[in-house]
Amino acid sequence: MRKVRLLTPGPTPVPPEVLAALGSPPIHHRTPEFHSALMEVEEGLKYVFQTQNDVIIFPSSGTGAMEAAVVNLVSPDDRVLVATCGVFGDRWVKILSSYGVKPDVLNVEWGNPIPPEDLGRRAVEGGAKVVFTTLTETSTGVTNDVKGFADVLKGKDSILVVDAISGLGATELLQDEWGVDVVVAGSQKGLMLPPGLSFISMSERAWTVAKDSRLPKFYWDLFEMRRRFEEGGAYTPAISLIMALRESIKLIRTEGLENVIGRHARLAAATRAAVQAMGLKLFAPNGNCNSVTSVWLPEGIDGSALTRMMDRRYGVTIAGGQGILKGKIFRIGHLGFVDEVDLLGSLAALEMVLLKLGFGLELGVGVRAAQEVLMKGGTA
Questions:
Q1: Residue 163: strand pairing partners
Q2: Which DSSP state fits 29?
Q3: Closest to 129 measured CA to CA, from 51, 56, 65, 208
């Protein structure tokens, strides 16, 4: 028997209630039944985003919502800033460049968060109309200070756009209270769904800026999607995923968003304590990331062999490094439908795999460290 446990930055495990909804026969999207479900989902998304803005739903990966933000807010000759500290911050650069827009890029060394004061200074000096950045950079295990970004841009002309694809539901993000203009997200992370839905929430200030955008768009036209929202959107929606999203939002509401975020923080703290007790080194010791923990591979340990053995022998899927970190780190996700027992069992598997690969450690030392954090309810 082989039971799969997903401890990756995404996709994440899907709760039974959500799987049951996915298995139900699809209904037609131009019916009162679907309309009622969609309105319930919309209100639930506003709760998770902490906003009163409309939350537009696209049948796409999270990158689709990123592209929608670009094409609806930017014109070819606009000055824009991208603040990046990893693969997903760099994705903003790639999307903009594909439309012929040359952004100013604030690059921060991977493993470190972006200093808000640096972002604010570059935005002002460059006259940035739009600033693109990331809440949780899962390629490195870093969470950025989005509240700090919003504070330094307060009263300025720049629109702040945040990729919260892997951070929403795991890390505090108060869109309206903080004054974040645009937030994009995806379904296969903290929302506990399979991949296939993306989301974008825009402030009225952002909608005003969007009226002047001159980049080409058809599928990603947010005005058309908003205009036809009550019909399910401008195109055939991902009906089964939206019905399943209704169930995952119910679970989040029942637990309470603050408690959901607290659970993620505890699991993250326990993971950090465990890997350090094993004698491993955190890649981003100041990353403060609730979604994923990034760990340097010990000298002489093959990262592919480690992830492969974790998967094939114990059914635990973790992730390797991306980009310049490929073959240098591994990443343990603790995102979405993951609890303490999932984590402890996976840490025990990690200890056994490391021993089999020749890394010296005392069995149970990491698991014990994680248990101690969880028993205290710690988040340090």
A1: 134, 184
A2: T
A3: 208
